[in-house]
Amino acid sequence: MVYISESKERCIILGEYLVANNSTVRAVANKFGISKSTVHKDITQILKTHNQELFKEVKAVLEKNKQERHLRGGNATKLKYEKLHRPV
């Protein structure tokens, strides 16, 4: 079971990493070996009550990621089909 202080510390670590690396929730989850759901909950719900300044920075990065996600998805699809149709 995660205690409140551990959860508070974890959300701050995750938030600082996300901001410092201009990262995605998925990348943070992979880096720390936890689920995307846990990362998202920590940085959007728990962080908001413990560190408002960091929360604002995290929110800005998440908003930027949201605006760019269609580009990342399109690029991933493009690479997938290029790989599939590459001459052998």
Count of domain modules? 1
Rg calc:
16 Å
H/E element order:
HHHH
Major beta-sheet overview: none
**Rounded average pLDDT:** 89
Strand content: under 5%
| Helix/strand structural class | mainly alpha
**Which regions have little confidence, pLDDT < 50, spanning 5+ residues?**
none
State the assembly state of the protein chains. Answer: single chain
Provide a short characterization of the protein structure.
With 88 residues, this protein is mainly α.
What attributes characterize this protein structure?
mainly alpha; 88 residues
Give structural notes.
The chain is an all-alpha fold. The protein has one domain (4-84). The chain contains four helices and no strands. It has helices at residues 4-21, 25-32, 36-50, 52-84. The longest helix has 33 residues, at 52-84. The mean pLDDT is 89.
Write the layout of secondary structure elements.
Blueprint: H1 4-21, H2 25-32, H3 36-50, H4 52-84
